Amino acid sequence: MKIGILTFHRALNYGAILQCFALQKYLLKLGYDVEVIDYRQSFIEKVYKVWNSSFFKKNFFHTIKILKYIYRLPYRYKRKKLFKHFINENLNLSRPCYSTIPTGYDIVFHGSDQIWNSKLTGGKLDPIYMGCYQLKKDSQKVSYAASFEDRQLTNDEAFTFKSMLANFNKISVRESGLIERLSPLTQKTIYNVVDPTLLLTASDYDLIATKPKVKNKYVLFYAVGPTEEALKLAHRIAKERQCQLIDITNKQISPNEFLGYFKYATFAVVVSFHGTVFSLMYKTNFYTYATGTTSDIRYYNLLDGLNMGDRCIKAMPQTIEDVDFSKLDKKMQQFTAFSKDYINDVIQQSPSDK
């Protein structure tokens, strides 16, 4: 059986690239031939291009914007180089494709990540991510933990979703709130499954993690949202625990190093879903700082499901407490069991697995 994965595998984003790696790794561990479909979505390619000439045309009279862009060029170049190396070393890629998908797959998993967020694909739902392409007879198109903004859909968006969800044999989403958005638009059952990074264990990530070149004990800080209060907390913990503070928010590191920083940290303060995930994976003491935005639901869904809701905070805690990880392994197995069953059911329903 040959399985394809369609996701944001070319986004220069730690969560995006590691969730792709994780789904591929999990399917490989099940014993299947797995390939990440090297779909090069035009808008995403443009966003992560090191030198974007259209930016200069658009901002020709905005000198400060242009100077800031030029100043960040070395950073953009190095980041792209680091991610490209990781992709080449760790993902089994198909040939590059731009508007059509190779037909030889028995199953194509769409997701995870926000592949159904029109803002991230140029202002409209991308038809490839929505299953608008041909495969060989009896092949399956399924979504695994696909995601988009948890908000009210416009009439046009609802109409498009209603039409395109018909392309899928089975549908699952990453956030439970999205079931309410999509259920009125299809007669199919929509399932809630975990982010692919949670399908693996620490030992799986150990195979690719790189130990950071840090001599002292350190408190790790990583944020993809508002950071001021969270950074204050990180400074406080570093002072109390007599540790160095390392902020990797804008640090030029590879996905391998990203994992290593979480593995060897004494404590982590994160404003990040995947920062939370890898703190859990490596049983690193942590706090996740809520942002007061819709993205917080991801933190709560994960931590409440593991009976660790107290690790997601909205204000400075009175005392810094360590995490009780004693029951985490068992809870993680229970938390991810349904998602693994979902994948097994998809594969067992494929004629190629009979």
Written overview of the protein:
- The model has no long low-confidence stretch (mean pLDDT 93).
- The chain is of the alpha/beta class and 354 residues long.
- It folds into two domains: 2-199 and 336-353, Rossmann fold, CATH 3.40.50; 202-323, Rossmann fold, CATH 3.40.50.
- The strands form three sheets. Strands 8-7-9-10-11 form a five-stranded parallel beta sheet, sandwiched between helices. A four-stranded parallel beta sheet has the order 2-1-3-4, covered by helices on one side.
- Helix 9 (228-240) links the parallel strand 7 and strand 8 (244-247).
- It is built from 13 helices and eleven strands.
Give the helices and strands, then pairings:
Elements (H helix, E strand, L loop, with lengths): L1 E5 L7 H16 L3 E4 L5 H6 L5 H6 L4 H9 L1 H18 L16 E4 L29 E4 L11 H10 L6 E3 L3 H6 L7 E3 L9 H5 L11 E6 L4 H13 L3 E4 L7 H9 L3 E5 L1 H9 L3 E5 L6 H10 L6 E2 L14 H21 L6
Parallel strand pairs: 1-2, 1-3, 3-4, 5-6, 7-8, 7-9, 9-10, 10-11
The CATH class of the largest domain, by name, is Alpha Beta
Structural class by sheet pairing and helices? alpha/beta
Q: Stretches where pLDDT falls below 50 for ≥5 residues?
A: none
Question: What share of the residues lie within helices?
Answer: 25-40%
What separation lies between the terminal Cα atoms? Answer: 10 Å
When the domains are counted, the total is 2
For the biggest sheet, the summary is: 5 strands, parallel
Helix-strand pattern, N to C? EHEHHHHEEHEHEHEHEHEHEHEH
Number of helices: 13
Strand residue percentage: 5-15%
